[in-house]
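Quick one: structure tokens for this chain, please?
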Amino acid sequence: MTPRTLTSCILAAAMLCGIASPAAAQDATKAPPGAAPAHIRVDAEVYRTDGPPLAPVAAASGQAMLTPDGKQVVYLAETGLYAVSTNGGTSRKLADNVRYFRLTPDGRYAIIPGGPFRRVAVTGDPAPRQIATSETAHGSPLVSNKHAAFTAADGTIVIATLLKGTSRRLVMDPPTDKRCHFGAGNPIRFSPDSKLLTIQSGCDQEWLVKTNGKGLQLLPFISGHFSGPFIFGSPKGESGMKAQIVVLDPKTKETWTVEGVDYSPFRVVVPGQLAFIQANGQKLEYVDLKARKVVTLHTGEGNVTGFISTTPDGETALYAVQSAGHCSIHSVAIATQSRQQLARVENTTQCFIHPLSNDAAAAHFWGHPSGEAIVAHVDLKTGVVARMGPPLKAIGTLSTSGGAVLLTARPVVYAAPPANPPSKRTVTDK
């Protein structure tokens, strides 16, 4: 998620929660002209922006997801799988007998596991098509725009082609270490072009294979991620993870290392760069795979959580810091390491921020004693933070995509449609 600059919470009878100006934070840069403080109250919707309010669009019994363009909400109800516009309107039924689903990264298909594996078009003809035979899968399937992969009950890896509706099985020797992934291989990641797939076997082996089932090879690392044409990961040493990253070019088989990088499970590849950022305790680090160097973007009090992301242009990193008694969200310019505290809320246990565009983000704070969650819109250019929608309890999930925000407070799904281009209007008191 998202939002911006929250400061002190006053726990009186009404339990009010405020947001501080970015200039008030110790590590914040000076707020630009026009960046007025935006105060947010937990117990009432007092402040809002001129953009569309967070409004209920559907009743759901469980899972709900946004399509990447931010135009559709796909959700589960008791009677099946449905899609509805973020602008509201009539829901369209996509399929019956659905327990859970996955969306392809482009939002074109919903993948429905369990029984026959099916794919159904989110827009256009919703007629489901079987992509794999009746299977019991271990865990949730891995999905790309072209393929789905999962571990079948017999331990084989099933790789299905979404468009053709065909599938193939990859038989692997069972790992000697059976503590992880049900003692079988487990699909981990597709390459961006969906031509390669990584599979973890046991707890300390990772394999690379083409999605046509050919070219199986053992990788010299685990926790592999794709960045451009390369794949990188952390080596496993006799005494644990080594402080380095190993990079592999799958075409040439060339490898090299980046030294001084401690292992972290919280990594995000930077768009348009051969680099990634990672949360590592009290630090946020930028690792340049091409230049083979590590840059510390943030260090200080509190722990950088696993909720890290970047703006679509890859120029700004967004992250959350959890400290004793409060949670805060931050941004940092990757090129200059100029950082800004956007929002801080006292008496919250967790928070996260997620981009809506290169200029805006959404923030989510929860764990307040009142039981209510704060969802806010953050202007990354001015630092202005504004609350979105009504006070909500029993929050299910928050996701953002294509400038839209989706919040589930079961059984109601709330959505804010994609916002108009950023305006210079300030937050107004209603």
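Residues 163 and 190 are 16 Å apart (CA to CA).
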